[in-house]
Amino acid sequence: MTTWKPIPSTQGKYEASDQGHIRNAVTGYVLKSHAARGEPAVKLALDGKMVFYRIAQLVWETFNGPLPEGKYAFPLDDPLDCRLGNLAVRSTRTGRLSDLDVLDIFERVADGESRAQVARLYGVSASLIRAVISRQSYEAAPVPDALVRRAQRTRQNATVRVV
Predict the structure, then answer these.
(1) Cβ atoms of 108 and 119 closer than 8 Å
(2) Helix, coil or strand: residue 52
């Protein structure tokens, strides 16, 4: 069953669904999405202006609250799939990881989260997470040596197989 909620930033004029759709709250009309810079977007009339809004951002903020400054919601698998369960947050629209992202990745892996889980959270591949942890990528990011060692040990222990 689809869940609809009012989009907070639209003063009750529009609603977002957990299935990645936007509708007019008064008429119930589901808006047609457009590609804006390669991302699904809808055109909303607010304050007398028609403006494109990214569907992923609207759905995320409707169900999870506002994103911190500099964070963006984006689809993980299919770039056109803006269902709530397929959205994650990252620091930039380009997929580039910030130094804070790299530090968070090390902390998560050191605390036992799998590379696949962390990759899904950041919208990158598990192989990139592996390269970050092995310091083959983003090696300039400031990460304490003790945390690097702890994450690398966790990674090594997680890949040991008993035959």
Answers:
(1) no
(2) strand
pTM reported for the whole predicted model? 0.59
User: What single string gives the DSSP state of each residue in 83-112?
Assistant: -GGGEEEES-TT-PPPHHHHHHHHHHHHTT
Q: How many residues does the chain have?
A: 163
47 with 53: CB under 8 angstroms? no
User: Amino acid identity, residue 87?
Assistant: L
Quote the pLDDT of residue 99. Answer: 79
Instruction: Give the whole-angstrom CA distance, residue 35 versus residue 120.
Output: 23
Task: Delineate the domains of the chain, giving CATH numbers in brackets.
Answer: 4-90 (3.90.75.20), 99-158 (no CATH)
- Per-residue tokens: 88: 């994650």
The type of residue at 156 is: Q
Residue 142: per-residue pLDDT: 83
